[in-house]
Amino acid sequence: MEIRLLVLRTADTKHLVDFYSLLELDFEYHKHGNSPFHYSTNIGSTVFEIYPLAKDQKEADKNLRLGFGLENFEEAIMMLKATKVPFVQEPAETAFGFMAIIIDPDGRKIELYRK
User: Fold this and answer.
1) Which domains does the chain have, with CATH numbers?
2) Which of 28, 56, 62, 77 qualifies as a FRET site for 12, CA 20 to 30 Å off?
3) What is the mean pLDDT of residues 8-13?
């Protein structure tokens, strides 16, 4: 089994794309079928998309937690700190590997692992 699609919904798609672009993700802005315009990128075989909130949705889901393995971990951490991204956990060795935890603009905890 593999994850093929991951969709985040947000009130401010451009702001969220700018944040995830700090992790060197390169998004395309497009639309297909009846879907709204949204941003999309590939992480391996997974399509990672950022959509506007659904019509019945008042705010983004803050309970979703993501984890990314980064080739350029140290450089990414320096850039995130320089842009004042909030850290819940500073980079440290854990039972799961060397990692840090940051907060995305919608309040989701994002785990960053050194590959």
Assistant:
1) 1-54 (3.10.180.10), 62-115 (3.10.180.10)
2) 77
3) 98
